[in-house]
Amino acid sequence: xxxxxxxxxxxxxxxxxxxxxxxxxxxxxxxxxxxxxxxxxxxxxxxxxxxxxxxxxxxxxxxxxxxxxxxxxxxxxxxxxxxx
Length: 84
Fold this sequence. Notes:
2 helices
């Protein structure tokens, strides 16, 4: 008698989840900062301390969707969109 593991279907791929922080350099253009290691708390910390400035928007990409979370992130960081 052999011990077989029942087929549970195809392997499940992890769903990526990351934030996109868009920096606006005016006439010089835009830069997207995408770092899968940075979570929402990290972005709030960088906004609060001034490391991220001139932020055009923050998007959260998850489950195949792209969600604009700019207002919530700016509020948590205690900065207005004009200051970010």
